[in-house]
Amino acid sequence: MKTVTRRSFLTLTGVTAAGALAVGATRVDWDSLMSAAAENPLDPNAGVLVVVTLYGGNDGLNTVIPAGDKAYQDARPELAYQPEEVLDLGEGLGLNPGMKGLKGLWDERKLAVVRGVGYPKPDHSHFRSMAIWQTASPDTSVPTGWLGRWLDTSGADPLRAVSVEPVLPPLLAGETTAAASMPVGGLVLPKGELGSAFAALGAPVPGEDPWRARAARSIGDLHNAVRVLGGAAHDASEKDDEDEQRNKGASAGGGSGLAAQLDLVAGLVEAGVPTRAYSVSLGGFDTHSDERGTQQRLLTELDAALTPFVRRLQGSDRGKQVTVLVYSEFGRRVRANASEGTDHGTAGPMFLLGEHVQGGFHGEQPSLTDLDDDDLKVTTDFRDVYATVLGDVLGADPGRVLSGHTTRLDDLIGTAG
User: Fold this and answer.
1) Where are the annotated segments for Disordered (predicted)?
2) For residue 69, is pLDDT > 90?
3) pLDDT at 295 over 90
């Protein structure tokens, strides 16, 4: 193999730490976040919120499943799960069989299920419903997101909230401040003999001149970034196949690669970056047809991303301060449609995970027979959950963020286990 030098490699590829990691003028790069961690590290006792958006309207009844309820079986003869198929949670409910990792967290009281969550006068439009969830304003349209308003009231520092999604979601846009953005792109470094040679070039050499020493640090930074952020693990054809599968039912947006997004978040938390709120997403939940296989695949992906993320965070003091909130813009109708899917509905479950979460059921399970125009009736206002995490995780005054809404779920967030 041709001898590789630092100068020839950098000249050939144009790679420097700044060049490889910079992601645009409106976004932050790795160096900026690491500098912030060094200059103003996150208090190890500060709560951190990770918001997971499931775009498309996840079917709550096939996520937290009343499998033994005759009304459920009658309404969904082809879609219904049988009692022996679900992961039993008690009270006649079970998790989707694709969520085995979350069932383990449930057994350890690290998973809370808030039932029947929605908002007054529900809207079946993806656009309007997601706007309501992200702005926390069900009655009037407002131009700011609920975490964006929290940013406005908490010092107007954009690094206090970071999105690792492809675009900055509206929930992180305030009136005077917007969150920072660092999308997961995946860094591809050379493999094989070339890769080994390149990695070796990052080692310091006694007596080398400053230019070569700086190049070595750049190479070392790149490998460290791939280790923490995660590289691009698949080739293009594999990615195309995965995207085609993932995008079935994905008409309402959302990011892909949830595990990669959460890996990045975990690395930033562990590094002490002074960020208090993160946003990640998974799309594909608009399951009007062939729902059962599509949704179970997506819930398996959700489970495979969330479970190791929470397990990893359990291993560090800063990680133990993280609370994860999982929501979708609405649930689905009780009755299946003619295409073995479900149409846009209303109430659905929210998940919260972490060491501070008081695991178990919260809120009342909606009736499957006492419906509102064929929709489940909302039993928990989503703003109650927001107010809880604002107050108990972020240490904020919910009323200043949620237009005076201060009602909390008192037993949802407690002390670390």
Assistant:
1) 232-255
2) yes
3) yes
| Alpha-carbon distances, residue 174 vs 146, 275, 348 (angstroms) | 8, 16, 27
The span from the CA of 360 to the CA of 373, in Å, is 30
Contacts of 336 (CB under 8 A, 6+ apart): 75, 76, 77, 78, 79, 291, 342
| pLDDT at residue 3, rounded to an integer | 47
Reduced 3-state DSSP string for the chain: CCCCCHHHHHHHHCCCHHHHHCCCCCCCCHHHHHHHHHHCCCCCCCCEEEEEEECCCCCHHHCEECCCCHHHHHHCCCCCCCCCCCEEEECCEEECCCCHHHHHHHHCCCEEEEEEEECCCCCCCHHHHHHHHHHCCCCCCCCCCHHHHHHHHCCCCHHHEEECCCCCCHHHECCCCECEECCCCCECCCCHHHHHHHHHCCCCCCCCCHHHHHHHHHHHHHHHHHHHHCECCCCHHHHHHHHHHHCCCCCCCCCCCHHHHHHHHHHHHHHCCCCCEEEEEECCCCCCCCHHHHHHHHHHHHHHHHHHHHHHHCCCCCHHHEEEEEEECCCECCCCCCCCCCCECCCEEEEEEECCECCEEECCCCCCCCCECCECCCCEEHHHHHHHHHHHCCCCCHHHHCCCCCCCCCCCECCCC
Least confident of 65-79, 106-120, 171-185, 272-286: 171-185
Query: Residue 8: pLDDT band by 50, 70, 90 thresholds?
Result: very low
State the Cα–Cα distance between residues 270 and 319, nearest whole angstrom.
Answer: 7
Which pLDDT score, from 0 to 100, does residue 220 have?
61
Report how far residue 254's alpha carbon sits from residue 271's, in angstroms, rounded to the nearest whole number. 27
184-188, 252-256, 331-335: which has the highest mean pLDDT?
A: 331-335
- What would the mean pLDDT of 407-414 be, rounded to a whole number? 94
Give the CA distances from residue 383 to residues 230, 328, 374, in Å, rounded to whole numbers and listed in that order. Answer: 34, 14, 24
Q: Are 111 and 382 in contact (CB under 8 A)?
A: no
Interval 61-74 mean pLDDT: 98
* Token pair of 162 as six digits: 């970071």
Distance of CA 411 to the CA centre of its chain: 23
Q: Mean pLDDT over residues 37-42, rounded?
A: 92
Q: Is residue 395 scored above 90 in pLDDT?
A: yes
